[in-house]
Design a protein that fits this description.
By secondary structure, the chain is α+β, with helices and mostly antiparallel strands. It has two domains: 2-55; 83-175. 31% of the residues lie in helices and 27% in strands. It has helices spanning 2-21, 26-55, 161-167, and strands at residues 83-91, 96-103, 115-119, 122-127, 141-148, 155-160, 169-175. The strands form two sheets. A four-stranded antiparallel β-sheet has the order 3-2-5-6. A three-stranded mixed β-sheet has the order 4-1-7. The longest helix has 30 residues, at 26-55. The chain is elongated. The mean pLDDT is 79.
């Protein structure tokens, strides 16, 4: 893309020199330079639009890429209306299930403390209620699931929020390991 712009710039300069050498007036030279500059700008804009179209994410609903989950406008984004299936199980069953949000962009999306969900087997459909979450930044956020049972080692798994949105599910099975007695 840069080489195209350089070639177009060189052609503008050559056209200006040619017009000057032919005895063209300053006015016609300025008009031709303006016309060439506007053609160059239009070509660059077209190239950029084509690139944006090529790299656009088709899994994001139209107009939702930058809409953020907010307390001020609850229920206004497609993210808040996206229902995710949560299915967590363990062997043995009866382990406590906790979750928390882990963000690599804490200035936008805050990390949270662990929240208790229920004991295994746990199955529920629920929406994400993560303040500041957008489709664009959902790749930078993870849900950490922690399963704890007395006499067993605690286990933790992390799930990428964007992947969970695309799959509409967070599910996992935890094979609990007994603690070694000392």
């Amino acid at each position: 893309m840069n080489s195209r712009l350089i070639l177009k710039g060189i052609s503008v300069v050559l056209a200006a020199l040619l017009l000057t050498a032919c005895g063209a007036s300053k006015r016609s030279l300025k008009q031709s330079n303006k016309a060439l500059a506007s053609a160059l700008a239009a070509s660059a804009a077209k190239t950029q639009a084509e690139a944006l179209k090529l790299y656009s994410d088709t899994s994001i609903p139209q107009g939702e890429a930058r809409k953020s989950v907010s307390r001020d406008t609850p229920g206004q984004t497609a993210l808040e209306q996206t229902i995710i299936r949560w299915a967590i199980d363990s062997d043995p069953q009866g382990a406590r299930v906790f979750y928390r949000v882990i963000s690599s962009i804490p200035a936008v999306i805050k990390n949270t403390n662990e929240a208790y969900l229920m004991t295994t087997p746990y199955e529920e459909t629920r929406a994400f209620n993560i303040l500041g979450l957008t489709y664009e930044n959902s790749r930078d956020v993870q849900i950490e699931i922690k399963v704890v049972k007395a006499g067993y080692e605690p286990q933790v798994k992390r799930f990428n929020v964007r992947q969970a949105i695309d799959q509409q599910e967070i599910s996992s099975f935890f094979m609990l390991v007994p603690k070694e007695s000392e």
